[in-house]
Amino acid sequence: MNDQNPNEPFDELMRRALHDEADRIEPTDALPEIRARAHAQRRPARRPWLLTAGVATVGTAAAIGAFTVFNGNNNLANDGDAVAGPGTTTSASEVPHSQTPTRVTPSPAPATVPRATSPAVKTSQPTDRGKPEQSVSSAVVPVYWLGANVGAQAKSTARLYRTWSKVSGHPAEEAVRIMTTKQPEDPDYYSVWRGAAVNSVTRSDGVVTVDFKQLPKTTLAPDLANVATQQLIYTVQGALADDTSAVQITQQGRAGQKLFGQVDTSAPLGRAQAADVQALVWITSPSEGAVTGSKVTVQGTANAFEATVNYQLTNLKTRETKKSFTTTEEGQKFSPFTFSVSLSPGPWQIDAYLISDADGSITNTDSKTIVVK
Fold first, then answer.
1. Nearest-angstrom CA–CA distance, 95 and 141
2. Nearest to residue 303, comparing CAs of 274, 332, 277?
3. Alpha carbons 187 and 77: distance in angstroms, whole number
4. How confident is the model at residue 34 (pLDDT cuts 50, 70, 90)?
5. Distance (Å, rounded) from C-alpha 372 to C-alpha 357?
6. Distance of alpha carbon 315 from alpha carbon 308, whole angstroms
7. Which end of the chain has the least Cβ crowding within 10 Å, N or C?
8. Nearest Cα to 24, choosing from 58, 56, 49?
9. Whole-angstrom Cα distance, residue 352 to residue 289?
10. Helices 53-70 and 8-24 sit at what angle, rounded to 10 degrees?
11. Which distant-in-sequence residues (6+ apart) come within 8 Å of 223 by Cβ?
12. Bridge partners (DSSP) listed for residue 367
């Protein structure tokens, strides 16, 4: 038996060729070149078939080594452009707008990111709406009420009238509680907030949130509903000495209820112009039911045409009357007025009012009943 392999000369020739080819190869760092090719083209270039077994072996080894480096732990942040989708290239400073939702800020799951007005917000978490008011031992706060708007040219059936109340605790919260549950001393004033129950007043980032356990269920005409909403806003802002912060109205932490069946509360509400909602004339002193001496000084505020405020005082027992006019410090804007009269003993009604320059009718009245000793 002949043990010599007939293919030995050919095998020996191949071993020598491969050894010589390997000696000529100088190892280099192929990563930069591979990265450059990856950025320059999206599909691997077609390579011609190699004609010799030695070259094919070396090419395969290089390809395996390159794949290992490219997918190793040394990848940079911009190594994976292919995840953006075929045919797109991006940089940190230039992100195509059409790709932003999927490439830069993927949409969060709705269950993990509740909206500000989501029903998930609870009244048991007042810090979500801001900081509570600072508690005080004693403070005098304004409380606004509705009063009939007299005159044929009246654009709304009611206007705002202000009174003052002494409170302790949280000033704005207590002012709202008075506005919604108490009866004003002046029988000409009233509130449509009966049935409402305030929960808290908090502040955050220029917004005051007034949360109610229960909002009023009364449905009003649009103009009256708007003035009644301003009644709350004026009262809250007055108690906080802040007429710029918007007021967010919520019920048990939820915004969006239709207040009085008309007013959208899904967003914070601002303060209306005083000339549009506030009474154009009111008496600030003496107060309703006051007991005075024979000389009575009447003070008030008015936004009067030509600064003229008319007044009439009537003895409710004898029907004696005194009638005249005074002027405000400035015309066509809210400005103080005052006048003094001597009165006989008895119950008196003081009426202050404006007269329409269009038809001479009485408009924008306010009255107080006092007892003169």
1. 55
2. 332
3. 74
4. very low
5. 34
6. 24
7. N
8. 58
9. 16
10. 40
11. 155, 156, 157
12. 351
Residue 215, SS3? coil
Confidence (pTM): 0.65
Spatial separation of the C-alpha atoms in residues 344 and 348, rounded to whole Å: 9
Is residue 163 within 8 A of residue 142, CB to CB? The reply is yes
Supply the DSSP string of 334-353, one letter for each residue: -EEEEEEEE--SEEEEEEEE
Cβ-Cβ contacts under 8 Å for 215 (sequence gap 6 or more): 196, 249, 251, 257, 259
The CA distance from 181 to 195, in Å, is 8
Q: Where are the alpha helices (DSSP H) in 272-351?
A: 274-277
> How far is it, in rounded angstroms, from Cα 8 to Cα 151?
124
For residue 14, give the H/E element and its range. Answer: helix 8-24
In 38-105, at which residue ranges do the beta strands (DSSP E only) sit?
Answer: none
User: Left (φ > 0), alpha (ψ -120 to 50) or beta: where does 117 sit?
Assistant: alpha
* 363: helix, strand or coil: strand
Q: At what angle do helices 53-70 and 31-40 cross, to 10 degrees?
A: 80
Instruction: Give the CA dihedral 334, 336, 342, 346, nearest 10 degrees.
Output: 60
- The amino acid present at 181, given as its one-letter code, is T
Written as one letter, the residue type at 162 is R
Residue 241's Cβ-side half-sphere holds a number of Cα atoms within 13 Å equal to 5
CA 36 to chain centre: 51
* Residue keyed to tokens 């005052």: 338
Asked whether the beta carbons of 204 and 129 are under 8 A apart, the reply is: yes
CA distance 290 to 299: 14
Each residue's pLDDT tens digit, 106-142 = 333 333 333 333 333 333 334 356 899 999 999 999 9
User: What contacts 8, CB < 8 A, 6 or more positions away?
Assistant: none
Q: Tens digits of per-residue pLDDT, 171-187?
A: 999 999 999 999 999 99
Report the 10 Å Cβ neighbour count for 271.
17
